[in-house]
Amino acid sequence: TGEGGMLTTDDEELADKIRVLSLHGMSKAAWNRYSSNGSWYYEVESPGYKMNMFDLQAALGLHQLKRLDDMQKRREEIAGRYQTAFQQIPGLITPFVHDDGRHAWHLYVLQVDEKKAGVTRSEMITALKDKYNIGTSVHFIPVHIHPYYQKQFG
């Protein structure tokens, strides 16, 4: 979808909660306020996020649905090779996949047990890049570590 992805469920109650959370915590009425039968009035029912799609993302997502099975199969093949290779390396913790779940494999997250690996995460990242030309990254650095949040909130 260009940004973020898609969530599906057959649980209508859960879908309603997700709709509220994905639009700043605003009530369902907020979704209809610009339609001809909508109202300007809405309420913020809970903390929420800015995760609503715009039309172009929705169109892209609908088009990608046709390729979903092929894309997922390819990601599963790659993740399977990673699992086989990385599970043999002491100190690397590979992703856990529930038997009754389906992983999107948007990211392949490895954790480094520094004691067992004998190197730090940073040393591992540097070695993979310098020795093998394998690019890796820390996808999300915890908010409390960033200077702005340390200055603002201690």
Write the layout of secondary structure elements.
Layout: H1 12-21, H2 55-65, H3 68-86, E1 92-93, E2 111-112, H4 114-117, H5 121-132, H6 147-153
Antiparallel strand pairs: 1-2
First-residue to last-residue Cα separation? 37 Å
Structural class: mainly alpha
How do the strands line up in the largest sheet? Answer: 1-2
Largest sheet: 2 strands, antiparallel
Order of helices and strands: HHHEEHHH
In CATH terms, the superfamily of the largest domain is: Aspartate Aminotransferase, domain 1
Percentage of β-strand residues: under 5%
List unreliable stretches of 5+ residues: none
- CATH top-level class of the largest domain: Alpha Beta
Using only C-alpha atoms, the radius of gyration works out to 21 Å
**Average pLDDT value?**
86
CATH topology of the largest domain: Aspartate Aminotransferase, domain 1
Number of helices: 6
Report the principal-axis shape: extended
Task: Give descriptors for this structure.
154 residues, 41% helix, aminotransferase, PyrdxlP-dep_Trfase_major, DegT/DnrJ/EryC1/StrS aminotransferase family protein
Describe the protein:
By secondary structure, this protein is an all-alpha fold. The chain folds into two domains: about 10-65, no CATH class; about 70-130, Aspartate Aminotransferase, domain 1. Helices cover about 40% and strands about 5% of the residues. The protein is built from six helices and two strands, in the order αααββααα. Strands 1-2 form a two-stranded antiparallel sheet. The chain is extended, with a radius of gyration of 21 Å. It comes from Bacillus cereus.
